[in-house]
Amino acid sequence: MIVVWQITERCNLACPFCLYDKRRVGNRREADAKTVLRFARLLGEFQQSRQERVLISWLGGEPLLWSPLFPLSHSLREEYDLAFSITTNGTSLPRELIQEQILASMTELTVSVDAFAEQHNAWRGWPNGWQNLRAAMQQLAQKAEHRGVNLKRRVNTVLMRDNLDTFADLCHELATWGIHEITFNQLGGRDRPEFYPSHRLQPNDVEHLIKMIPMLREELGQQGVQLRGDDTYLQRIEASSRDISIPVHDCFPGERFLFIDEQARVSPCSFTAASLGVSLNDLHTVNDIMNLPARFSAARQQQLPVPCRNCTSTRVFAKFGG
After folding, report:
1. What is the DSSP code (8-state) at residue 303?
2. Across the beta sheet with 265-267, what order do the strands follow?
3. Rounded mean pLDDT of 102-126?
4. For the residues of 69-115, what is the DSSP string, one character each?
């Protein structure tokens, strides 16, 4: 079971394509630590009773800004042997203390890198950020390998027209950072609709990407790095570039994947939190978790959520395949 948990809407960077750009006005919600601890313990009991491994993946905003993160993760790892991962913009990674806490409590680390230094730093509003991130990732890799710590290290890139031509070269550079995997997302229009039209991938861009992937995957494999995203994933990206909808009537919701937002709603994915979300306050036993798939399926059968009529879930379309 993979549980992606969005714990904060706060962020300290200024990415023009992201909903959590620090320049955007409005309240930034955060998860309640007591609620997170209670339900995470329930997930620990679920793991023990079902003998089914649970990975909790912290997401933001910038999750490293949520102060309870490391104490809570370390405690739950010790108590229930839960596995944890985190997706971060990397601004905190150069700090020695943060590196030690990641090595002590995380199973997977994903950092966001979208381009080479000049472009990446400009997009993020982080002077010298790319250089600092590279050094920090290489340090983490050296520490993990020296200590025999099993920490999967991954880089994720948001692909758009602006960075597609340099993606292959960027991947080869990232392979020198001591990482294991590279994943990618297409630029989405839901978060920043004002940015999307002029930067989105067009059909000819995706055609170029599809031709590029097999050789790039082979070359990276020779460098010891896996490039994820199988043919199903590329087909979803191509359909999006052509504004073709792909409805999904049954994704087996809640069986192997859950999404929890900062408002303490659990749902089959981030797109269905508003329509299918169940409050964590209504879940008190392992059986309540086990009953979520039936609960989600019944709700979908009664009325298929709008996002399901054109599903863009990277989980459903095998972002981590390949």
Report:
1. S
2. 226-227, 181-186, 152-159, 108-112, 83-88, 55-59, 2-6, 257-260, 265-267, 278-279
3. 96
4. HHHHHHHHHHHH--EEEEEE-STTTTSHHHHHHHHHH-SEEEEE--S
The average pLDDT across 85-107 equals: 97
Within the chain, how many helices (H) and strands (E) appear?
12, 10
Q: What is the pLDDT of residues 43-93, one digit of tens each?
A: 999 999 999 999 999 999 999 999 999 999 999 999 999 999 999 999 999
Give me the helices (H) in 243-291, please.
Answer: 273-276, 286-290
Distance separating alpha carbons of residues 319 and 322, to the nearest angstrom? 8
Bridge pairing between strands 2-6 and 55-59: parallel
pLDDT reported for residue 248: 95
Domains and CATH numbers, the chain: 2-310 (3.20.20.70)
Q: Specify the residue for token string 């960077």.
A: 13
Q: How far is CA 98 from CA 30, 93, 131, 209, in A?
A: 20, 6, 17, 35
Residue 114 neighbours by CB distance under 10 Å: 25
- Residue pair 158/189 in contact (Cβ under 8 Å)? The answer is no
Digit-coded pLDDT (tens) for 249-288 = 999 999 999 999 999 999 999 999 999 999 999 999 999 9
CA distance 247 to 304: 10
Predicted pLDDT of residue 322:
77
Q: What is each CA distance from 116 to 48, 157, 165, 205, 238, in whole angstroms?
A: 44, 11, 12, 19, 25
| Token representation of residue 321 | 């395949």
Residues 6+ apart with CB under 8 A from 224: 175, 180
pLDDT at residue 46 in the model = 97
Structure tokens at 150: 């099993």
